Amino acid sequence: MVAVGLETERLSLEPLRVAHAQEMAPLLADERLHVFTGGQPPTLRQLRDSYRRRVKEPGWCNWVVRDRDSGRVIGGMQAEIAERDGEPVAELAWILGSADQGHGYAREAAAAVVAWLREQGVRSFIADIHERNEPSMRLARALGFVQSAEAADHAGDVRWRAV
């Protein structure tokens, strides 16, 4: 599956390209964005290297989220598609710049990605969310996700599922 451009009322979701690293690096440099994911903000070089791998990786759909009015990059969406028990499952992740949080942008972008993936035949979704990341848990609930008893991939995360 290959990501396509998506449009919402306020946002443009552009399939990830290596060139997006230049715009994403300043947004991802905000250490507040790494509180629940750990690690340090990536350098521009690290981000370019990561994007080079991601754009070639089968089963990875990544988007840069852009405000349609200003043209400004405000975040990113990711869906890793894998087959489990003969069915495609999408593991979702999202990140939104600190200045743009609290305006419903992440929900709008995530809803567009889920709708597009459903059109592609994906019926099962998961998201691993840190147990203290209340905004992401609210977003998951708004998308119809529920907490799962299944273990998440990282310590401190809780697995959420939607079907």
Structural features, described:
- With 163 residues, the chain is of the alpha+beta class.
- It has a single domain, classed as 3-Layer(aba) Sandwich (Aminopeptidase), CATH 3.40.630.30.
- Helix content is 28%, strand content 32%.
- It contains four helices and eight strands.
- It has an eight-stranded mixed sheet, sandwiched between helices.
- The chain is globular, with a radius of gyration of 15 Å.
Q: Determine the number of helices (DSSP H or I, runs of at least 4 residues).
A: 4
Spatial gap, N to C terminus? 19 Å
> What is the N-to-C succession of helices and strands?
EEHHEEEHEHEE
Low confidence ranges: none
Corresponding CATH architecture: 3-Layer(aba) Sandwich
> Main beta sheet, described?
8 strands, mixed
Total number of domains: 1
CATH class: Alpha Beta
Mean pLDDT: 94
What is the name of the CATH superfamily? Answer: Gcn5-related N-acetyltransferase (GNAT)
- CATH topology, by name, is Aminopeptidase
Residues in helices, as a percent range: 25-40%
Strand order of the largest sheet: 1-2-3-4-5-6-8-7
Q: What structural class is derived from the secondary structure elements?
A: alpha+beta
Based on Cα principal axes, name the global outline. globular
The number of E-state strands comes to 8
Kindly provide the radius of gyration, computed on alpha-carbon positions and rounded to a whole number of angstroms. 15 Å
Strand content: 25-35%
